[in-house]
Amino acid sequence: MSALLSNLSLGFSVAFTLPNLGLCFLGCLVGTLIGVLPGIGPIATITMLLPVTFGLPPVGALIMLAGIYYGAQYGGSTTAILVNIPGEVTSVVTTIDGHQMARQGRAGAALGIAALGSFFAGCVATVIIAGLAVPLTRVALLFGPAEYAALMTAGLAFAVVLARGSILKSIAMVLLGLLLSTVGQDLETGADRMTFGVASLSDGIDFAVLAMGLFGFAEVMRNLTVDQARDVVHGKIGRLLPTRGELKQSALPVVRGTLLGAVLGILPGNGAVLGPFASYALEKKLARDPRRFGRGAIEGVAGPESANNAGAQTSFIPLLTLGIPPNAVMALMVGAMTIHGIVPGPLVMTRNASLFWGVIASMWIGNLMLLVINLPLIGAWVRLLKVPYRLLYPTIVIVCCVGIYSVNNLPEDVLATSVVALLGYAGSRLGFESAPLLLGFVLGRLLEENLRRALAISRGDLAIFIHRPVSAWLLLTGLIVLVVAVVPAIRTRREQVFVEE
Amino acid sequence: MARIRVQAPQDLVAGASLVAVALFALWAAGPLDSGRMGAPGPGLLPRFLALMVGGAGLALVGVSLARPGESLGRWPVRGPALIALSVVTFALTIRVPGLVVAGPAAMLVAGAASPETRWKELAIFSFAVTAVCTALFRSLLHLPIPILVIPGWVTL
Q1: B42 and A194 in contact by Cβ < 8 A?
Q2: N or C: which end of chain B has fewer CB within 10 A?
Q3: Nearest 5°: phi and psi at B149?
């Protein structure tokens, strides 16, 4: 306990320096901005800002990038409530009851409870990260290549189950992502693999190109085909502070949402996205009168909004302790770390203690800042929402272009991104999701490296993955998760969680 | 003999595309050595993954024949193609003559993707955005983006 306190005080001493406070604020501000704007999310934004962080000290860079990620969770709810369009994937469920509340003239209360719930979730998640970091890191140090490979495989299994849509298609996307990650020089022999003699492919497919194509441009292409008519709530937002009765109604959903979101967020495989859906389903089930849901039930805002923020933060845990990015945003964090010579993994906590705890402490500070950015300044964001999409999307295109060009200062990257975007768009028309593909790609190299190391140790005997207990358990968990997802009874339940009206 | 009917056209095309991708990858990985289990070569994993992707594709094709599913739906081409063209425009003009041209040009091409675009408004707006981008990325963030380059004349 005292170790935890001393660690946290080290963290706060790092985070409370002027430049880091500034970067934290900047990250939260940018995060809220892109959260509010539909059509651009944290993946494209962080890819775009990666070159900017090259010049920053590593702590500052990570503090800012983290702020963008959890800041986007706050911003996303504003759009969901006021416009009935999710600003981010994680605020999809908020549109259901949040927008109904807004139509009944209770927009202020919805926004207020979303921000307060997120703040509570952020505080709890910060403590959870701090508390779990040390024991998990100790576990991670016992991990050999076989365990790492097994853990990543289990993570990919989770990713398949947690993805929306067809399970078979998700599996295919994870496999395709893994396959794409094998393009480039072989780690051991140095042989060029599937590069067709293109020199720039020797380093592998650029993650930034893939991420920006699939989540920046392809997103714009997809949005063009849906009707972007804005249903901005007119008239007053009303008082932002929820009444005592509303607070009482929301208290337990916030706590439950936080815990649910935090647990799902830790899962490797982007559990953070599932959190709000699960929380909504849970609140509806627990409610005395489930019919209120969909008609402006405040619990339907409080729970999911807490869950998405908790999940966004706890998804840092696998990265910081095991060095395994559980989603694409965390993979970009890996990029930001390795540029500064920091290898993500269990050693970060001891070798870069001030960075580790500084980033964690900054999350709490950032959540406090976000409360201010989102509640008193809500008027500014509402005005931003009135910018029509016909002007917004060319702006997103151009800013993404500048961003992807800046990563390597290569026009070829920009060209490649346009190809990826078209493929991503075609994929989405066929019902393929981009998220599992990107995760497979992210984990691919790490997985292959550990797989081959494990096989080298066992002299080619695959049984090593079963003989080592931890690895066996992890693989079994992954298998069970997959099997369970395919069993019809549970599959319909899973679909219900995602559909929810 | 019962005729086989396609019940889920979307899944059929999706599965067939995966099979195509897998075949392409197998061909591309052709010259790579697979090695043995004890000493895996560079080709082992790509080949294994390609086979798995192909397998998933075949399974999807199978499902599409057995279970009713979604139709192919609409495939709007104009919008996405123009967005891609806009990105290509940017790529071709960013080095020479630089962002001053690349920015507005890319935005105007992108604007053609939506029927709602008002050209005069977008033209003015595109120059404003380019100015903001210049200030933000070049002046404030010090990224080496070419602003205006006319060979032998100006390099900004």
Answers
A1: no
A2: N
A3: -130, 115
- H/E element, B150: strand B149-150
- Give first-to-last CA distance, chain B, whole Å: 73
* Identity at A193, one-letter amino acid code: R
Alpha carbon of A391: minimum distance to chain B alpha carbons (Å): 7
Quick check: B43 and A405 CB within 8 A? no
C-alpha to C-alpha distances, B65 to A114, A123, A171, A427, nearest whole angstrom: 45, 51, 19, 20
Which tokens go with A60?
Answer: 């500052």
Distance CA(A285)–CA(A211), nearest Å, equals 37
What confidence category does residue A496 fall into, taking pLDDT thresholds of 50, 70 and 90? low
Burial of residue B75, with CB atoms counted within 10 A of its CB: 0-12 exposed, 13-18 middle, 19 or more buried: exposed
In percent, how much of chain A has pLDDT > 90?
A: 31
Buried b (16+ CB within 10 A) or exposed e, A462-497: eebbeebeebbebbebbeebbeebeeeeeeeebeeb
Range in A145-154, A315-324, B147-156 the model is least confident about? B147-156
Per-residue pLDDT reduced to its tens digit, B103-149: 999 999 999 988 888 999 999 999 999 999 998 888 887 888 899 88
- Answer yes or no: are the C-beta atoms of A309 and A94 closer than 8 Å: no
Concatenated DSSP letters of A15-58: HTSHHHHHHHHHHHHHHHHHHHSTT--HHHHHHHHHHHHTTS-H
Amino acid present at A12: F
pLDDT at A257: 94
Least confident interval from A62-66, A377-381, A471-475, B37-41: B37-41
CB atoms within 10 A of CB B44: 22
Greater confidence (B98 vs A235) lies with B98
B36 vs A contacts (CB less than 8 Å): 460
**What type of residue sits at position A65?**
L
Residue B29 CB contacts under 8 Å (≥ 6 apart), including other chains: A193, A194, B43, B46, B47, B50
Chain A residues in contact with B34 by the CB 8 A cut-off are none
Q: Are B83 and A224 a contacting pair at CB < 8 A?
A: yes
Q: What single-letter amino acid sits at A445?
A: R
A176, A189, A459: residue with CB nearest B38: A459
A64 vs chain B: nearest CA distance in angstroms?
Answer: 14
CA geometry: angle A82, A83, A85, nearest 5 deg:
125
Please give the helix or strand (H or E) that residue A447 lies within, else none. helix A434-457
Name the percent of chain A in helix, strand, coil, to the closest 5: 75, 0, 25
Average pLDDT, chain A: 86
The helix (H) or strand (E) run that includes residue A339 is: helix A328-339
List A residues 10-49 in contact with B (Cβ-Cβ < 8 A): none
Q: What is the pLDDT of residue A500?
A: 47
Task: Dump pLDDT digits (tens) for A67-119.
Answer: 999 999 888 898 888 888 887 778 888 988 998 898 888 888 999 999 999 99
- The angle, 0 to 180 degrees and rounded to 10, between the axes of the packed helices A58-83 and A353-374 is 30
Q: What count of other Cβ atoms lies within 10 Å of the Cβ of residue A244?
A: 8
- Residue A225 has φ and ψ, to the nearest 5°, of -85, -15
Interchain pair B25, A179: CB under 8 A: yes
Average pLDDT over residues B44-55: 92
Rounded to 5 degrees, what angle do the CA atoms B20, B25, B27 make? Answer: 95
Contact state of B84 with A217 under an 8 Å Cβ cutoff = yes
Asked if A123 reaches chain B (Cβ–Cβ under 8 Å), the answer is no
